[in-house]
Amino acid sequence: MKAHKVLLALPALLMLLSSTLLAQNAANDTTSVKENLEEIVVVAGKVKSQLRLEPVSSFSTPTRQIENSHIGSIADFASYAPNLYMPEYGSKMTSSLYIRGIGSRIDNPAIGLNIDGVPVLNKNSFDTDLWDISRIDLLRGPQSTLFGRNTIGGVLNIYTLSPMDYQGTRVKLGYGSANTYDILLSTYQKASEKAAFSVGARYGSTDGFFTNAYNGHRCDSGKSGAFRGRFIYAFTPRFTLENIVSFTRDVQGGYAYGLYDPATGTTAQANYNDICSYRRTLVSDAVLLNWKFEDFSLTSTTSWQYLDDCLTLDQDFTPKSMFIMNQAQRENVITEEILLKSNENRNSKLNWLAGLSGFYKYNHMNAPVTFREDGIKELILDNINAAIHTKMPMANLEFEDMENMPLLSSFVTPVKSAALFGQIEWEMARNFKLVAGLRLDYEHTSFDYDCYNSIGYMLKPMQRTYTTVETILKDKLSRSWFTPIPKLSLIYGFGKNSNVYASVARGFKAGGFNTQMFSDILQNEMMKNLMPAGMGGSATGASYKVEDIVTYKPEYSWNYEIGMHYNSANAPFGGNVALYYINITDQQITVFPEGTTTGRMMTNAGKSRSYGAEIAAWYYPVSDLRLSASYGYTNAKFTKYHNGLKDYKGNWVPNVPQNMVNAEAGYTFNNVCSVFEKLTLNASWNGTGKIYWDEENLVEQKFYSLLNASILFTKNIGTKSNGAARAVTLEFWGKNITDTAYNAYYFVSMQNPFFAKGKPARWGATISFEF
Hints:
With 771 residues, the protein is mainly β.
């Protein structure tokens, strides 16, 4: 209730503060709404709609490519965007992205995500189904000056269809391999020149592709549903309100993680005894207000976001009853940004923007780990008794409950942030343009943890009754960061929207607190408490200081880049090229501690450097033929990283593909026959690798490639009121049609290495109606 009140109050306050300006400008406004409609519905953004005019390495996909290439998630998009990589973890919760050698498995992402101008702050919300998308833009390199925290590697901007720009009703029915089906129904209506609205819903389901050998059930089954509503109203030609509401529900099965044998290089079938599942609910409500004045625009973007998810995990992924984890969290987020931006059509050589932004995030997580009978014996009792036997050979410790031992953990993490940012763009002489920006970012986070265990034990033969011992870890930690984030670019324009540029920018990824080691810390303290008096020490051989093991610092980078955007003036040809060098300090790396620990911890690796290139080209020799190709290269290595046991200096940064390549071709045959007017053929080839999976560079995925294709039959069935065609399209598609085998994710638990395999060949058909 409080979040909704704040959400409604902030736009109302902005409307009140702006009423004077609106009144002053209304007297001079004699232009009709219809004549200014394009200006009304285009909300002021931080970057130009033509990204090729910006000093940045970018990649953009419009609606047609998104739908023809079956881009239904960010992971799908990443396979087409050079140097952007999203592993297939097996759950929508673990949605990590890697770009240019930067990324992390847990906690804060390295890439920002904005949907219709609204920032998504929790990466557990990143991997969501994409439908009715207008455009996806990737901006590589640090974007922290304009977009703030956790955009050290870049930012993804996703735009959904707007009822002001598109009108019609869409129906899609799809079916594919593994009993996978998808249903979509949406309508976009323009009620008048002032008002437009849209509503849409989607539902999907799959039986999954991988089987758990322990019970014969599919691991990766899943269901998902989503709703989105949008309302736009132009009160005046200069003032527009937009409200976007969305709801998503996902229910998934477990993880298809198989034990890896380094000696043979083979990965076994998934084989674990306890249930794995993930369920997630996402709710978002955003209000966007745009005022258009003669020389500048004022935009307010306010959002409330809610995340409720629960992960149940057989954390050892073996047939033994070792331990299970149940991680449930609820998170509320309020974001606000006020942006002032000069109008580019002014007769001025100086353009500018300035803004204020802030957010408040409150996360409450419960993450109990329950040791089962095998885990109690092998991980706890055997270690304690081995230590006891060194001084008391005849003594043995026994627990009252030998089947379940819960280690309870509760965490509360509020984060608040405020930032002031600005940028100027100065058109100099001789086609040169200077762009300079600065952001002053403040963030404060605190961390309340409350961990508890109670266990009954007996030391035989000395004791004959059980004694209860309690282990409690409870405290509060806090950290604050103030970070200046500058950037500077020089652009030289030539030809038709062509340019070369050079830029230097600082990147910033927030620090924080890692929750995934607390079960090990609590276990360690519990075993100390269970040791007989006078023996002391820890039976695990490990000692943890809570603050040191759970806290990690921010990550910083400096990105140096030169590039070119080229458009041929006389031929349908264009291309981009960018070369970059990045210095990264305090890089956040996920490590799996030595020994029989089960958690993962985030550590600041020291330093690393990354350099590489992105190259893209496209050629449309005739209107119905589309050819494109792109390539990305990344060379990311540690320059300083010693984890206390080993020195990884000179090693490749893990989870980062060294090469990514994509080639696409599409051709449309028109006026084919009376049954269907159009026949469209599409094919794409995507290659990825090599990837080192560990800091020691002992485990790798060699270069692999996937081939995708589709064929579409389109029949026009009339004309909409706006002149666009009504159509029916039948599509047959295939992904990984050569059935290439590859590994998609690697991790270690209890010294056992595991791989998640990539999806096999998939086939399907989709019928679409557009009215």
